[in-house]
Specification:
The complex is a heterodimer. By secondary structure, chain A is an all-alpha fold. Chain A is built from 20 helices and two strands. By secondary structure, chain B is mainly alpha-helical. In chain B, α3 (about 30-55) packs antiparallel against α4 and α14 runs antiparallel to α17. Chain B has a domain at about 325-485. Classes of the chains: A mainly alpha, B mainly alpha.
């Protein structure tokens, strides 16, 4: 029996099993729960390291189990999968540490961490799916696992946010299912293949292919928060900060964006998608989303809501990079999957710290907060500047490749979108930084907790500092081996544009 | 040792064992509970034995008393029978475990004999090879089911049971007329023989109409579903579970068999279309009604009406896609049985715990029974048709059959049905996470009742990973084979 055939399954199990055990634990079993969480996360990271090394040297990791008579459940570790898996596994560890600090003493923690683990399991499953039905399976599991996290606080507002989330995502899931089954009746296979698997489908099915594409991208676009399917995301802000962090950086929106990459490159194949006239409209939708999200973000006073609209805008960079349909732009889009994750999770961690430590929820309350919480605000500053696209932070690399890629295929209008978005990003992030660092603080913070001589609990402070450093490192060391950029180039060579 | 095990006539055991068990329970009510549990466990083992036998030797046919067809009674087991028997055994086991905690004397003494009698009737029905034997078992099953649903003796229960009795008698009567017509016209009641002899004559059309209508009435296909919600909602929880999971499936099974072996090859498109149309109406109507209910048990009962509809969607699809549509039906029937039984057991737990099943007031109850809520959630996943679950596999296959033939209308109905189902499942689940007020006095729910519900729900989820081996099992003896060579 080939050991490599079980590693992908093990990768999924490394968060599933601890999660299931945690559900059964009593509320007071704090140590055991923490041990389970952390050992699961560390085991996953170790597996990731092993597989990264293996894939880089050309090994294959694939688990294949029969699901239906002609369809298998396939978990495969290719370069693209591993990019997303690495992001999820790394940020899961940090978010778990953060969540342990954040939720200390609050009720229903076993339930929370159980679903938290399920959520990561689903994300890793989405990343490693080797065909569309496996993808669909984990995609829907993600919907179900996230719902309890969104309504975790149990308030009426949370219940309504959860309801709205479900309406959007279940309808999206239905569209995706319909498109998938339809495609299956045309092709007889659902296996993700470099450059797509619909070659055999003749011209007479042109219309069907177009509708299938719209159904799939529509279904994925709900989670990726493409306008006008984004309505659930700002409402989902009622969730606890670690959930928002995970939702915006790794799990839900990224699963949607990742799915779009898969569908365009490995279901339809980018050439065929362009030939069908589908990438142009997708680029336009992505561009509209980028601008719309940024404009809406400008007018939010609630910090988490501003960040939410910023997510809507930023995640669409990925879809944009995909839809520009050139090798370099693709690299920009794919690498942004990681870069946006690192920067946005930093920002959400910081927002959570402000709320937990000082009771700050609104931007208008942030005057002078940089002096009270220098480490937190330093991390926030790195994240914000990265979002704007200031070199040498990771966000700059994404925008550079996107712009370069757009010029390469003669789509200059994208530069305007990028420039406009950067300006808007600056317009809604710089005032926050100005308030935090240069304004005098108010007499009293809204609701201050005492952490002694530290600015906040170490479990809350460490994760954002690390992610900020990672975001900085991903930009500074972009040309080093195993950097996200290098890996994205590897993906582009191996999976998307091979001769 | 293994050889002896293989030689035992398991099919006969499956019928005689619960019959004698019922007798014993009736004679010695004091030990009814233990006798019942032992019988049901042995039934599960017997089904396993039969499955092994069939996998080893192929399709099983047993001439009772040495008299073969067309004179005697034959027992017949192919893949489809095995599936239904296994479903009965599994649901039966869980419901029996549940019932040990649910029923106190004197109700227990009435429950166990009737329940074992019902199991005997179900097993005999799934093993019957001729349409008259099917009638006998159908009638027996109907009467046992009516008696069970009246068990609590309350006003609601008696009213519901009365409606149920009328519907079930009327249905059997119509079916019996059809049997008489076919026997008169073709001189046999054996399904295989009838399948060979049948021609398109007016007698056949009359029999077709009578039998299909009668069975549709007993299966509660829209618009004949009027009797189901009151009967299923007012019965004791384990009985509701059995009625929804097994009893309606039994009459559907007969209809399916008739269609596959006798009427299908005649190529009656009109009837197929009509059944599909009624199925679609059932999916939509049942789901919308479920969404509107304020009582949990009624919600679950209307959900059954909707889920039955899916089974009928396969009829217009089968001619074009052959085995895919029927495979979908087999899978949907099985996963619905498990999930729906789990839901009714959950409803019973909540009712026991809080003393009511008003959905709006459930938040005080739901949070204190985590196992029960988990069972409802997992069963809900399967009912909604979301992965990973048996319901998803069934829905996928049915959707595939529909899209292969460009039946967009049916595909849209399926998607809508799934979304509406999500609506009514989450209507209940939403309360699992809200902040509960001060919980008022509550009765304890025995662990056996919580675990029985969870067992079924988990089984419905696990089904999502067993499609390949299970469909291979169902394929033994090619129960759906005839439809593929249809003209």
């Amino acid at each position: 029996m080939n050991w490599n055939a079980w590693l992908p399954l093990l990768m999924v199990a490394s968060s599933l099993l601890p999660g299931l055990v945690i559900f059964g634990l009593g509320e007071q079993r704090f140590r055991l729960r923490t041990a389970l969480n952390l050992s699961g996360a560390l085991a996953k990271l170790a597996l990731v390291g092993w597989m990264l090394w293996g894939v880089y040297h050309g090994q294959h990791f694939e688990t294949r189990l029969p699901l239906l008579p002609d369809l298998d459940l396939v978990l495969r570790a290719g370069p693209l999968s591993l990019l997303f898996v690495t992001l999820s596994a790394g940020l899961w560890l940090l978010t778990t540490i953060y969540a342990i600090g954040y939720l200390e003493g609050s009720p229903h923690r076993s339930r929370f961490f159980g679903f938290f683990s399920l959520c990561v399991t689903a994300t890793v499953g989405v990343a490693m799916s080797g065909n569309l039905i496996t993808f669909l399976l984990f995609y829907e599991l993600l919907t179900l696992a996230t719902y309890p996290l969104i309504v975790h606080r149990g308030t009426e507002e949370a219940r309504r946010a959860g309801q709205s989330y479900l309406v959007y995502t279940l309808c999206g899931g239905a569209a995706l299912l319909l498109g998938t089954v339809w495609l299956y009746t045309l092709t007889g296979t659902l296996e993700f293949t470099p450059r797509g698997f619909i070659h055999a489908v003749g011209e007479e099915h042109h219309l069907a292919l177009v509708v299938i594409f719209i159904l799939m991208i529509g279904g994925l676009g709900v989670k990726a928060a493409l306008v006008p399917l984004h309505g659930w995301l700002p409402k989902a802000m009622v969730a606890p900060a670690p959930v928002s962090a995970l939702l915006h950086a790794v799990a839900v929106v990224k699963a949607g964006a990742f799915g779009i990459i898969r569908v365009v490159y490995e279901v339809f194949g980018v050439e065929r998608a362009a030939m069908l006239g589908l990438t142009g409209p997708l680029a336009v939708v992505a561009a509209v989303t980028i601008i719309y999200g940024s404009v809406r973000a400008l007018f939010q006073d609630d910090l988490k809501r501003r960040l939410a609209f910023s997510t809507i805008s930023q995640v669409s960079y990925i879809a944009l990079g995909v839809a520009i349909a050139g090798p370099i732009a693709t690299i920009g889009g794919v690498v942004h999957l990681v870069h946006q994750g690192l920067m946005k999770i930093t920002l959400f961690f910081c927002a959570g710290n402000l709320a937990e430590t000082l009771g700050i929820h609104k931007i208008s309350e942030m005057n002078g907060v940089g002096r009270r919480m220098p480490w937190t605000m330093a991390a926030f500053t790195v994240g914000a500047l990265g979002m704007i696209g200031a070199p040498p932070i990771a966000g700059f690399i994404s925008k550079w490749y996107l712009g370069l890629g757009a010029l390469e295929v003669g789509q200059g209008w994208v530069l305007l979108v990028l420039a406009g978005s950067s300006l808007l990003n600056a317009a809604y992030f710089l005032p926050i930084l100005y308030r935090a660092w240069f304004r005098a603080p108010a007499d009293a913070w809204p609701h201050e907790h005492d952490f002694g001589d530290k600015e906040t609990a170490w479990a809350l402070l460490l994760p954002p500092v690390i992610t900020a450093l990672l975001a900085l490192g991903a930009g500074l060391l972009a040309a080093a081996p195993f950097s996200p950029l290098e890996w994205a180039q590897l993906i582009s060579q191996r999976e998307f544009y091979q001769p | 040792m293994a050889a002896i095990f293989l030689e035992i006539p398991w099919a006969v055991v499956l019928i005689l064992l619960p019959l004698s068990g019922a007798m014993a329970c009736f004679l010695w009510p004091a030990v009814a509970k233990s006798v019942g549990l032992v019988t049901v466990s042995m039934l599960a083992l017997s089904v396993a034995g039969l499955v092994w036998q069939v996998m080893e030797y192929g399709v099983y046919r047993h001439a009772v008393g040495g008299w073969g067809a067309p004179l005697g009674i034959d027992l017949y087991a192919d893949g489809l029978s095995l599936l239904m028997l296994a479903m009965t055994a599994l649901v039966g086991l869980a419901v029996s475990i549940y019932a040990t905690g649910y029923f106190e004397q004197p109700h227990a003494a009435r429950f166990w004999p009737l329940w074992l009698l019902l199991l005997a009737a179900l097993n005999a029905l799934f093993l019957a090879a001729d349409i008259f034997n099917l009638y006998v078992t159908l009638e027996l099953m109907g009467l046992a089911a009516v008696a069970l649903s009246a068990l609590s003796g309350s006003r609601d229960a008696l009213g519901g049971a009365m409606r149920y009795l009328l519907a079930t008698l009327l249905g059997s009567l119509a079916y019996l007329f059809g049997v008489a017509l076919l026997y008169h016209g073709f001189g046999s009641v054996d399904m295989a023989i009838l399948g060979q002899r049948l021609e398109a004559t007016p007698i056949v059309w009359a029999a077709l109409a009578l039998m299909t209508t009668g069975l549709a009435l007993k299966t509660a296909l829209f618009p004949f579903h009027f009797w189901l919600p009151p009967a299923h909602a007012s019965a004791p929880a384990p009985v509701s579970a059995v009625l929804s999971a097994l009893v309606v499936k039994a009459s559907f099974y007969i209809l399916l068999r008739l269609w596959l072996e006798i009427f299908g090859p005649l190529g009656v498109e009109g009837v197929e279309t009509l059944l599909g149309l009624l199925g679609a109406a059932a999916v939509l109507w049942g789901s919308v009604q479920a969404l509107r209910q304020t009582r949990l048990k009624l919600l679950v009962a209307y959900s059954t009406v909707a889920q039955i509809g899916y089974l009928f969607l396969a009829f217009p699809l089968a001619a074009g896609s052959g085995i895919t549509a029927w495979n979908a039906v087999a899978y949907l029937a099985l996963s619905h049985a498990l999930a729906k039984a789990a839901m009714f057991l959950v409803a019973g737990n909540l009712l026991r715990f809080g003393g009511h099943d008003r959905i709006a007031d459930l938040d005080r109850v739901v949070q204190r029974l985590p196992l029960t809520v988990t069972a409802f959630a997992l069963a809900g996943v399967s009912i909604m048709g979301l992965p990973p679950s048996g319901g998803f596999i069934g829905k996928w296959l049915l959707l595939e059959a529909a899209l292969q033939q460009g039946r967009w209308d049916l595909a849209v109905v399926m998607m809508l049905g799934g979304l509406l189902a999500a609506g009514y499942v989450f209507k209940v689940l939403g309360f699992a996470f809200t902040q509960a007020g001060v919980p008022h006095e509550s009765k304890t729910v025995p662990a056996s009742m919580e675990w029985a519900a969870l067992l079924l729900a988990v089984a419905a989820i696990v089904l999502g990973f067993l499609a390949a081996p299970l469909l291979a099992l169902v394929g033994i003896g090619a129960p759906f084979g005839i439809s593929e060579v249809a003209p």
